[in-house]
What we know:
By secondary structure, the chain is of the alpha/beta class. It has helices spanning 3-13, 17-26, 83-93, 104-110, and strands spanning 14-15, 31-35, 46-48, 52-53, 71-75, 97-101, 115-117.
Amino acid sequence: MNALEYFNARLNATISPMDYLRSMKMNPEKYFLLDVRNGPKNLRNIIIKDANVIPEQELKNHLDEIPKDKEIIVYCWDVWCNTAAKVAKFLLENGYNVKELTGGITAWKEMNFPVSKSTYNDNVTNNCGC
């Protein structure tokens, strides 16, 4: 793969927080935002506003909650975490249209974009799995 192919693939597989926010405002019905973070619940209590929470550890049991007719935007902790990439790969293998939100919730919060409290109740272990 040459540099041009790499950057084309990267742009096709990811979306920046700014691009997602702009696109979501223009066409909110197109997207399904998915928080897939594992780890301690007290650290996952803040989510991107209107995100759907299904931790990676529970994903296989909740596939029926993820629409196949929308573009799925997955995110995890930050650029160092690969949980969202693992989930994106799994969902793509199962027929979903998926992109990863670049920088995860860390980049989102750094830009002071809207967040909310999570009300999702789960049994996720404290192991992040990144």
